[in-house]
TrEMBL record:
Gene3D superfamilies linked: Jelly Rolls
Protein name per the record: Pirin family protein
Native source species: Acidovorax facilis
Lineage of source species: Bacteria, Pseudomonadati, Pseudomonadota, Betaproteobacteria, Burkholderiales
Family stated for the protein in its record: Belongs to the pirin family.
Occurrences of domain Pirin C-terminal (ranges): 218-322
InterPro entries (UniProt xref): Pirin, Pirin_C_dom, Pirin_N_dom, RmlC-like_jellyroll, RmlC_Cupin_sf
Alphabetical list of CDD domains matching this protein: cupin_pirin_N
Biased composition (Basic and acidic residues): 330-339
Residues spanning the signal sequence: none
Length: 359
């Protein structure tokens, strides 16, 4: 890819510290551990909520092929991720299209999508499944989501696990019109944004709930030609990644970006973002002050030392993190395209089938 900077600005402070082309997994900075963009063009579904096409030629159980525009992942009938454990961090799942069925070892369950965000604090240990049921038997079942892993500081790695839903219609948004009337819409999943309503509360033990964490998760939609100022972060040591993943071209301050890329942007300054292309631009922003602690990771466990990783593995073998209360490893929550959440020990929360942004 290429980054161009006008000669007049070449000796001035430039916003982009580093740029990297986007791949299956996107590079992250402390306090984030992982970011994946799943964009699957699933076909019509069959009676078992799987693809109504042959799948025998795929590596069932570990299909990340992207063949025909979609993958089965770890699913063998329904695409997705059957029951698996986590300890020591958080998962944030932002669904742009389609529906996900969540089940976990707490007994919690949910079906969510269309802009909804699920936030799980794994803490001392949780087992969950994330399945992608193909409910439509006559038309394609597109699914698009971000899966983001946010680290926990050492003092919170062994907190009780926690599950919450941020419903699309409750997530605050800022709609900004520039001098020419062109709109930029910012969806505020986490982190205060000047001019936007207050964000919803992350889980209580999250690094995003600590004021010093300066965590933000925003998505941006810029109309062709639109300009919007990405405000400086509050902390001097805060790190920020700007992922440009939809659109023709983007200008960050004086620098032009002509390919989809992960951009490490200086967070201590305001920078004007300009959509210089002819189609809409979309970006994801992940920012936070680094936790700054050692990271030891083995698959789904993220701790501070290798001995803690061994302890996590032994604890899981011994306790299964509380056990699995579901009859299958890949539960699917019925045939209706409904949105709901059932929290441990609470009544089921039902949401309208079709989410309306900002309602």
């Amino acid at each position: 890819m290429s980054l161009s900077t006008p000669a007049a600005a070449s000796t001035a402070l430039v916003p982009i510290v580093r740029a990297q082309l986007l791949g299956p997994q996107w590079p992250t900075l402390d306090p984030f551990l992982f970011c994946a963009h799943h964009d699957d063009a699933y076909p019509a579904g069959n009676a078992a909520f799987g693809p109504a096409v042959p799948i025998e030629d795929r590596q069932i159980g570990s299909d990340f092929s992207g063949k025909d525009g979609w993958s089965m992942y770890h699913g063998d009938t329904v695409p997705g991720f059957p029951g698996h454990p986590h300890r020591g961090f958080e998962t944030v799942t932002l669904v742009r299209k389609g529906l996900i069925d969540h089940s976990d070892s707490l007994g919690a369950a949910a079906r969510f999508g269309g802009g909804d965000v699920q936030w799980v604090t794994a803490g001392k240990g949780i087992v969950h499944s994330e399945m992608f049921p193909l409910l439509n038997a006559t038309e394609p079942n597109p699914l698009e989501l971000f899966q983001i892993w946010l680290n926990l500081p050492a003092k919170n790695k062994m907190v009780a696990p926690h599950f919450t839903m941020l419903w699309n219609e409750r997530i605050p948004r800022l709609v900004h019109h520039d001098a020419a009337g062109r709109a930029t819409t910012v969806t505020v999943v986490a982190g205060a944004l000047p001019g936007a309503p207050d964000p919803l509360s992350p889980p209580p033990e999250s690094w995003a709930s600590q004021p010093e964490g300066d965590v933000a998760i925003w998505t941006l939609h810029l109309e062709p030609g639109a300009e919007w100022t990405l405000p400086a972060a509050k902390g001097e040591t805060t790190q920020r990644m700007l992922y440009f993943f939809v659109g023709d071209s983007l200008r960050v301050g004086p620098q032009d970006v002509d390919r989809h890329a992960a951009l490490q942007v200086r967070a201590t300054e305001d920078w004007t973002l300009t959509n210089t292309g002819t189609t809409a631009v979309e970006c994801l922003v992940l920012q936070g002050r680094p936790i700054g602690e050692p990271v030891a990771q083995y698959g789904p466990f993220v701790m501070n030392t290798q001995s803690e990783i061994m302890q996590a593995m032994n604890d899981y073998r011994r306790t299964q993190f509380g056990g699995w209360p579901w009859p299958d490893q890949d539960p699917v929550h019925g045939t209706e395209a409904r949105r709901f959440a059932r929290y441990p020990g609470q009544a089921e929360e039902e949401r309208p089938a079709e989410a309306t942004a900002g309602a």
